[in-house]
């Protein structure tokens, strides 16, 4: 399966495996929390686990693996990291505002009211 | 000629990262970046200005440490459940920050750090509504946001 | 030796990411309200993107990276459009 990893030293393989497992483990924990937490506003915190260090760990592992196995710097994966870091807060904020708006319109739950209508 | 030098530079860098470095790609990427920054200038004339850019690495380091710490905290909350006396809750806090770019950066930081989410900003009252997953008492959170981030962002941007 | 370590790690990571995708899909199908479904979709595509990056490590090809980037962009735009629809649709009602 992995052809180009034959000449990779063991410490490098251990490092790549470490970051890979941290990233995917955090993504899995985030998904578990996403299923377990009871209300929407608590659930909104769970995906950020996967998008902060989940993405970070896997992107780091990919950068390390491609840089070490081809012995030249391969940093284009960092674009994925930057992109996810910039876009996830935007989607979460938009969704949270949509949820606030809907909860206020239907008057359910204990959602704080807007102080003054604009 | 170059209305947004930082934007142009980062676009060229992104082009080179995607396509690999060669002289032709450097030329083509520079063309694309310059035209894109002209388009940006036509869209939005207000330009963010960095006062003390040398404080930016400190901000990055703070965010890095906080992300790791709150990742661990939120993972513990999810796996073990919340300790007794801790609840999730909404939090309204006043902000003194006014610069739009700085507010956007604060919102991105607070949302991408697990455990706190930025919900709504009221521009006329200058209040922000946050949701916090593990709320012990409100004072600590308000203090943390104000002293750690707001002061630094005000120094950088205002 | 390093091949075994990498193979195990990549397989475990793919297994965990697939589990995360399944959990997000469950939330997407039985989430009580529309915003839960949308955030489930968001989580689903981010995990799919991570799975593609791990595929790239497993096979040693760079082509998966571009697929992951495209998924990230399209997913972001679709989530923003859906959230916007959620706000505007209620206003018109």
Structural notes for this entry:
The complex is a heterotrimer of chains A (118), B (158) and C (93). With 118 residues, chain A is an all-alpha fold. Chain A has four helices and no strands. Chain A is 72% helix and 0% strand. Chain B has 158 residues and is α+β, with helices and mostly antiparallel strands. Chain B has two domains: 5-43, no CATH class; 53-157, no CATH class. Chain B is built from five helices and three strands, in the order H-H-H-E-H-E-E-H. In chain B, strands 1-3-2 form a three-stranded antiparallel beta sheet. Helices cover 91% and strands 0% of the residues of chain C. Chains in contact: A-B, A-C. At the A-C interface, helix 1, helix 3 and helix 4 of A face helix 1, helix 2 and helix 3 of C. Chain A: Keywords: Membrane, Transmembrane, Transmembrane helix. Chain A: InterPro entries: PhaG_MnhG_YufB. Chain A: The chain crosses the membrane at residues 6-35, 47-66, 78-100.
What are the main properties of this structure?
heterotrimer, A: 118 residues, mainly alpha, C: 93 residues, 91% helix
């Amino acid at each position: 399966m992995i052809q180009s990893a034959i000449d990779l030293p063991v410490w490098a393989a251990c490092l790549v495996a470490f970051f890979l497992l941290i990233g995917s483990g955090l993504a899995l924990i985030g998904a578990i929390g996403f299923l377990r937490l009871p209300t929407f506003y608590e659930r909104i915190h769970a995906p950020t686990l996967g998008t902060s260090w989940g993405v970070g760990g896997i992107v780091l592992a990919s950068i390390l693996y491609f840089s070490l196995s081809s012995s030249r710097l391969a940093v284009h994966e960092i674009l994925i990291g930057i992109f996810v870091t910039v876009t996830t807060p935007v989607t979460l904020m938009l969704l949270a505002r949509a949820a606030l708006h809907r909860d206020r319109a239907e008057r359910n739950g204990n959602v704080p009211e807007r102080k003054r209508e604009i | 000629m170059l209305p947004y030098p930082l934007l142009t530079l980062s676009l060229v860098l992104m082009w080179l990262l995607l396509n690999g470095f060669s002289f032709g790609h450097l030329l083509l990427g520079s063309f694309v970046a310059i035209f894109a920054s002209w388009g940006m200038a036509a869209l939005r004339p207000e330009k963010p200005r960095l006062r003390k850019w040398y404080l930016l690495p400190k901000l990055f380091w703070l965010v890095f440490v906080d992300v790791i710490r709150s990742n661990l905290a939120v993972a513990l909350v999810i796996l073990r459940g919340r300790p007794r006396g801790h609840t999730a809750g909404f939090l309204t806090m006043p902000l003194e920050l006014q610069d739009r770019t700085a507010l956007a950066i604060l919102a991105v930081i607070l949302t991408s750090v697990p455990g706190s989410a930025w919900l709504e900003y009221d521009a006329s009252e200058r209040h922000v509504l946050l949701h916090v997953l593990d709320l012990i008492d409100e004072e600590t959170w308000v203090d943390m946001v104000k002293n750690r981030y707001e002061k630094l962002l005000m120094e950088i941007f205002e | 030796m390093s091949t075994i370590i990498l193979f195990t790690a990549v397989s475990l990571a793919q297994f965990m990411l697939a589990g995360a995708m399944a959990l997000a899909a469950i939330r997407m199908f039985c989430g009580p309200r529309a915003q839960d479904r949308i955030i489930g979709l968001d989580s689903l595509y981010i995990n799919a993107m991570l799975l593609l990056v791990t595929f790239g490590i497993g096979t040693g090809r760079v082509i998966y990276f571009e697929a992951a980037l495209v998924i990230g962009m399209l997913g972001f735009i679709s989530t923003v459009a859906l959230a916007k629809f959620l706000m505007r649709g209620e206003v018109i009602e």
